[in-house]
Design a protein that fits this description.
Elements lengths: L1 H16 L3 E4 L5 H6 L1 E4 L3 H5 L7 E2 L19 E5 L4 H12 L4 E6 L1 H8 L1
């Protein structure tokens, strides 16, 4: 019984330490972009048609998606965006499951960013 109590406590602690967060892409400042790891999870063709400055393209559909994040410290702040927000949300969930602790989904995606320009 103690084992299950300890296991449950550890699970609660783990979940509370890694919170999913999001922010409208239109509220992100250039200073923020310069201080985080910015990742565009769209396809290379979408990325080539336009992207945010300093964004690295890591295609959500790439079979090596997880591997591309291996060199990144799991405590770094990562901002993710895609076309509208669906893929970046899935990518956020995936990275959180891999142990990344500060992953922010930029809501609205690149389309919202363009509309705000």
């Amino acid at each position: 019984m103690k084992f299950f109590l300890v296991l449950f406590s550890m699970l609660i602690l783990n979940v509370s330490c890694a919170q999913m967060s999001s922010k409208p892409i239109t509220e992100v400042s250039q200073n923020e972009i310069n201080s985080v790891i910015l990742v565009d999870v769209r396809t290379p063709a979408e990325y080539a048609s336009g992207h945010l400055d300093n964004a690295e393209n890591i295609n959500w559909f790439d079979e090596n998606f997880d591997k591309r994040f291996e060199a990144i410290n799991k405590n770094e702040t990562i901002y993710l965006y895609c076309k509208k927000g669906g893929r970046s949300l899935k990518a956020q969930q995936r990275l959180m499951s891999l142990g990344f602790t500060q992953v922010v989904n930029l809501e609205g995606g690149y389309d919202a960013y363009l509309e705000n320009q």
